[in-house]
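Q: Hi! Curious about what Methyltransferase looks like structurally. Here's the sequence.
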Amino acid sequence: MSDDLTRDTILGGRVHLWQPRKGYRAGVDPIFLAAWVPAKPGQSVLDLGCGAGAACLSLAARVPGLSLTGLERQPLYAALARRNGAENGQQIEVVEGDLAQMPEALKQRVFDHVIANPPYFRRDRSLAGPDAAREGAMGEETPLADWVRAAAKRCRPRGYVSFIHRTERLPELLAAFDSCLGSLETFPLIPREGRDSQLSLVRGRKEGRAAFRLHAGLVVHSGPVHQTDGEDYTPEALGILRDAAPLGPEGR
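A: Let's find out. The predicted structure is below.
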């Protein structure tokens, strides 16, 4: 094992993930994103900013027979996504490039699902991190609205676009979705009962016409505070994070 990499397991050991020891490392966010995607066997998926492939592989662990494509601008993460796909028995086509200048390999293609876990933090309102790879994943360079437009362009008619982002930026994200997608849905992730949501999932449908839907959301942790050294996930969260259960009404 390289000293610069770790080989981790997610989804209760269903997925093994090589990722850098330092820099950006996948947490639970891509797993929740994958659980939110209403994919069916045989459909195609494009992950914008796929990193080491955590979201794609989590989705593939739940839904068999998907055609997986990732777009990643950092060569190290692109190489890890290919390696992780191969070692998990999943073929991921990883295209290196920036969505702000969509590579020719993707320009003429459309997908049943386009997913993204964009950088969370606007750097005109916060400080950049010291690690370049982590900063590339967490600090926003391309405006959030451009992420949504790029996703909508690559989505086939009646297909779905699914994002995860910080709840504080939900007004901006919903406005961007509403400009090019319909049938919008939002699903808040709530750290603990009685706490404010910090992360939210958003989904839109190309040419969708259904009314906006705000779901009741998911409480991630049990109890008012963290009281033990172990995990304290709620049963519903644990089903998603360990058993690859779907998130939302379908999972209930």
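A: A fun detail: The chain has one domain: 26-251.
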